[in-house]
Structures are given as structure tokens and as C-alpha cells.
Amino acid sequence: MTTKKGVLIFALLFIAFYVLIYVVPTVSDIFQQTYIAEYGTLDVSYETDCIFVRGESLYKAPSAGSVDRKVNAGDLMRPGSLIATVGGKEMYNNESGIVSYYYDGFEDKITPDKLADIKKSFFDEFKEGPGVQDAVSGNAESSNVIFKIVDRSKWYLVCWLDSKDAERFTEGSRITVDFKDGNSVKMSVYSASKDEKQTKIVLSCDRYYESFDRYRVKECSVIYSSNSGIIVNTDSICKKDGQTGVYVIDKFGKANFTPVLVYATNGNKSVVARNYFYDSEGYPVETVKNYVEILKKPKQ
After folding, report:
1. From the CA atom positions of the chain, what is the Rg in Å?
2. Mean pLDDT value of segment 203-224
């Protein structure tokens, strides 16, 4: 009986140790949320309303009459070109530029030489006005707007960002603006200046954008950077022994700390190096790969 009792105790202890070593960690892992990280591109961007600033001249009907447009919107014309006739009277442009059939009444107020005078209060002023309108294309009355000539050689966007975010925008740096209409344009930071609690950012561009004459105010996505790599949840990134990393789940269900190099973050998501990166001393460091399983929020 003593021998059988000893064997039973040994068996029970063996089972207890087995459960403690293998079963308990597995069960506890069920409550640890994970996800599959994939390769992708992460944009660090800011959604903000922008003011379009252009050099532009309005041309108004010299008298009442029927309007006959001679050129298409968006055409680049030299000075002295026949743009339209009103009641048979010919109308020519005085400067080179893009022909536009949109206007809003701010053509002589929001201009490149008045960039420093543009205030955030303009958004409210614009909302109270009639907005962007179509130039007359049928029968015009005297002084109706017939067309506009817009300087395409250089134009600007003005926006306001929280000062902390605006620290990234230094004069001369290149950024991308997504106009949310299927178009995006590379622009340069023309200036950045404190304006009350925010920073006023002026962006400049010398590239043609087909709709740049149609807007005065538009919500845009100002993209500071665009980086490709493994996309991870920012909450997954932690520190261990001074090293930045994430916990990767191996095929046995064990969470292993893996160093990462963070390229950029937009808050909830971050993009990190894939496969390997070089440390401060130039040595390669193995890091996360595509489709690895990562612990969503490790305990610090």
C-alpha cells in the first residue's frame, strides 16, 4: 500500500507540474489579445482646412449682351489672347495664366502679396459669403464676371496647426497635400509662424493642379511623411532593458521580445523596419517579419 501511495503521489505531482508548466501559460495566453502584423505604408498626416491663395485677375462684361466663350477652362493663355465676346465685343487678357470660369469675390483680398495679413477668421468670413460661383455663360449684364486669369507659376495654401504638430514643418521642407478629390500635390513649407495658440503654416507650389482655381477654402490632408514597413499598433511597442520592441508569438505560443526600429507613428499605428535594421553601432538586428503574430498590449 505504501508503494502504491507513493506512486500515486508522484503521479499527482507530475500532473500538477505539467499543468503548471504547459497548460496554465496556454490558458492565460487565451486572454492575451494578438493580431497579425502586415507590410504596408503609413502616412503621418493632419486634417485641416486650407485657404487657397493665388495671383488672379477678374474680367467683367463691358456691357450687357450674350456671352461667347472662345477658350476652355484650364487653358494656358498668353497675354492678348481672345478669351470671350460679350454682345459681340471682344475681351482679351492682359497677363498670361490659366483661364478660369469660377470666382468668389476675394480675388483682390486673398493674394500672394497679402499672405502675412491672412487670419484664421477668414474661414468665418468666407462661410458668410456666397462662396465660389460660376462666371456668367449666357446673357450678361454690365459688370458681370465673365472669366478670370490665374497665375499658375506659383500658388499657396494657408492652414493652422497645433504648435506641437507644427514643429515638424520647417521652412523649405517638402510635404504632400491630398485634396480628397483624387488629387495630391507636392508642396514646400514657405513659412511657419506663431499665431495665438496655433501655428500658421504657408505652403507653396509651382506645379499645376487641375482644380486649384475652383477652391478658396477646402479641407485637405497635409501629409508630413509616408513610410513603408511593418504596421503595428502603437500600444504594442514597449521597452525592455532600454530596448524598444514588441512581443512576437512563436509557434509554441510563447511571447518573445523582439527589438524594433520605429520609422514613424500617427498615434494609433506605427510603422517599423522589416526583417532587420542596423543599430547605433552599425550591427544588423533581426526584427519583425511580415505576418508575424504580435501581442496587442503587453504588460509594462
Report:
1. 31
2. 93
296 by DSSP, 3-state: which? coil
Side chain identity, residue 118: I
Query: What pLDDT band is residue 299 in, cutting at 50, 70 and 90?
Result: confident
For residue 26, which of 255, 205, 293, 299 has the smallest C-alpha distance?
255
Residue 231's contacts (CB-CB under 8 Å, 6 or more residues apart) are 37, 38, 39, 40, 42, 269, 270, 271
Tens digit of pLDDT for each residue in 146-196?
A: 999 999 999 999 999 998 888 889 999 999 999 999 999 999 999 999 987
- Cell numbers placing 28: 492565460
On whether the CB atoms of residues 170 and 134 are closer than 8 A, the answer is no
Contact 50, 159 (CB under 8 A): yes
- Give CA–CA dist 226/7, Å, rounded: 65
Sequence-ordered alpha helix ranges (H) in the chain: 2-18, 24-30, 122-128, 163-166
Find how far residue 202's CA is from the centre of its chain: 16
Following CA atoms 9, 14, 15, 19 in sequence, which dihedral angle do they give, to the nearest 10 degrees?
140
Which of these, 92, 11, 33, 49, lies nearest to 217 by C-alpha position? 49
Decide: 231 and 203 in contact? Cβ < 8 Å.
no
**Farthest CA pair distance, the chain:** 123
Helix (H) or strand (E) holding 235: none
What totals of helices (H) and strands (E) does the chain contain, helices first?
4, 25
Point out which residues pair with 249 in neighbouring strands. 255, 293
All cell numbers assigned to 135: 462666371
